[in-house]
Specification:
The chain is of the alpha/beta class. The chain has four helices and ten strands, in the order E-E-H-E-H-E-E-H-E-H-E-E-E-E. The strands form two sheets. An eight-stranded mixed β-sheet has the order 5-4-3-6-1-7-10-9, with helices on both faces. Pfam families: DHFR_1.
Length: 184
Amino acid sequence: MTGDHESSAGDDADPGDDEIEIALIAAVAANGVVGADGSIPWHYSADLRHFKETTTGHPVILGRKTYENVVAGLGEPFPDRLSVVLTETLSDLPEGAVAVGSVEEALSVAREAAREMGVETIYVAGGSAVYEAFLPLAGRLVLTELHGEYEGDRYFPEVRWDDWRETSRETGEDFDFVEYRRVS
């Protein structure tokens, strides 16, 4: 991770498309819930801080509804990140966000942004349909695994756990920060 995405040092070593990793980042309840009625049904400051620290300086792909919830909460797109918004309806977005109409276009824009930012990871931040579209392409999962179950109407997609290996876990009282890497 790098917070200094304006640095142009190491231009000769900029990552190519094959070296740019796609990582899904999500907070997931024990019953798979990721959302309810257009919002997140829990609030953990440490999880929000983890999301910010992990994604700052990187392109973040997200769906229209998730983007609109971010703007409603923050008053702007994610600061210090490029929000790549997968949508069929939005076209005129403020600085820091760009609208795209397909998974392929989202990847193209995000890869170019990652190269310009000098980073090797694109994060995918939901909602559930966007997670489902990008899961087959992801090489890493960055999850906040909540210990409790929550009521909701949006779920993280089914994961074939045989295809993934846990690489780190930071255990907490109400949730764990866990990373997985694809093994097949």
